Structures are given as structure tokens and as C-alpha cells.
Amino acid sequence: MKIYVDMDGTVLSNKLDNQFRCIATAINMAEALLWYADVYVDDLQVNTVLLGKIATLKAEGHEIIGWTNRDDNKQLMTERNLGIYLPLFDTIQYHAGDKRSSVVSDGIVYDNEAEYVAMGAAGSTLVTW
Hints:
The protein is α/β, with parallel strands linked by helices. It has helices spanning about 15-25, 30-40, 50-60, 75-80, 115; strands spanning about 1-5, 65-70, 90-95, 105-110, 125.
């Protein structure tokens, strides 16, 4: 079974998303996107409880897919954020703000946002910290 796991707010703390939303609301979306293009955040907390569950699922033979709205230019930052937990993921899909367009017809979704949780055709879990 494929397990799709969101990054920001699910596996990693929501600090990056919160900063982006604040800039978009206070200034505008164009400025928020410019900020996001240049930002690198290395001090995000990891959800060790969820990662323990992911490790168990991986050991059971499930395919673990990181599933994020981050741009692919954030790959190195994502790898640093995950640190020692990176090997738990078979792949990470970068959807550049358009995760809604990906079809999750073959797996289970772990996400902190209800709209994405609803996309898990084989099941889902709404993750809270």
C-alpha cells in the first residue's frame, strides 16, 4: 500500500507555512511567493510520534511517499529538515502549491489539512501535533 505523508504541519512543524500565510495576508501573494523562493528554514521540529508510525508502516512493506506543496527547489531544505528520518521516505513528490491536482487513488493520506485528508481513496488520517 502507498502511504502519502504531507510535510509542513504533518511531519514537520508548520512554521514555514505560517510565515508564508502571514506575508500573503499582510502584504500580498506575489510578495509571499518571492519570500518563499529565497527562504531556507533549518530549525523545523519533526513529529517523532508520526515518524515512529511511519517507520512501522515502512517495516511492514508499505511504500512511503512524501507529498508536499513545497517547490522542488526546496528539496535540499526538505532533506535537511527530515534529517535522520529521510530514509523512511521512498520518494518525495513536490507539487509547488498544487497538491490538489495530484490524484491519490492508490493509497492512504496523512495530512494536517482536511481538504487533503479527503483525497485518500484507501483511507486517511488527520494529523495534529
